[in-house]
Design goal:
about 375 residues, alpha/beta, Rossmann fold, 2 domains, five-stranded mixed β-barrel, 12 strands, about 40% helix, methylthioadenosine nucleosidase activity, Nucleoside phosphorylase, Nucleoside_phosphorylase_sf, adenosylhomocysteine nucleosidase activity, Nucleoside_phosphorylase_d
Length: about 375
Amino acid sequence: MSPVVILTALDVEYQAVREKLVDLRPHRHPQGTRFEVGRLAAGRCQVVLAHVGKGNLSAAVLAERAIAEFRPAALLFVGVAGALQAHIALGDVVVATHIYAFHGGTDQDDGSKSRPRVWETSHAADQIARHLHRTGYWARDLDPRPNVHFGPIAAGEVVLNSRRSRHAHWIDDHFNDARAIEMEGAGVAQAGHLNRALPVVVIRGISDRADGTKEATDREQWQQRAVANAATFAAALAEELSTEESTTRSTTMPETTRNIATGNARVGVQAGTVHGGVWITPETSRPTNLPEALADFRTRLSQAWADGHLDESTYKAAEAELVTVDQALETKTPDRKNTLMLALKKLRGLVGDVAALAAELTVIIALAQSLS
């Protein structure tokens, strides 16, 4: 399973993400960059964490370094930002749909003209992030629960703390749909673009309003509160992106297969791309309802742990997701099915390396999808 790289610019941002990780170990790049590698405490996703410092240039260089070193499934940038729109509250989370590099332009006799660069978040990553937001499960432990906003983020090389400055007017004139402003998103977006469209998602917690009140909001510790919310969303998104990557990799087969059976050997199945689950056992042995399938899965999960195919921490995390599945099945709330599907997908990510368990979960998910 490929890791997810998470980059931060400030110490407070780094620490907020680090608190979500366990089993941390340092990783030193030959050029001296220090990474920490661990896994999410609430899941199985492996995470590579790095501190890149302020600015798009350093963010781009170290993002490229992390991509080359770890070949991640996705790259997330997590930090704070200033809100550019009045309806976005302190502590809310903004997930970028586009990144504007707003400093691009030309100065002529008739005035300044904008020549921005724009990077769009990949469709698949955006869809996963929106689904995560719709379920609301990611924020179950947060009180109060922040709002999540999707939209463009402006990235430049200045800390904007005014609504009357030249930069403020420039942004309002040319990028008035931007939800927030920050200093690193353009760098990491460019690094992702240069690496075969690696999914890059910029996630920002709103710590100020970019209106001259930053000193006051910093004193009130809005940076810590805002980035804690962003880190919580990022951790849930990382788990989803990792699970998606693992599932895609495990279910994708070459379009052309070569039969190498010789002598008296028999070929049971020869196929290219297979969509859905494949059962080699007789049809009568396939579970016919969700409770039956879950009961059978629990037995096989316990056996896989006893046989050493799963470590104890993974086994316990899988059991925790099964408890969430049970609770979702017992409730009649409108988001019951979303909660159920999210837990099953996390479960699939946890046991994805055990082929038999992954195959059973494919069937369980199919049964869950048929629920009303």
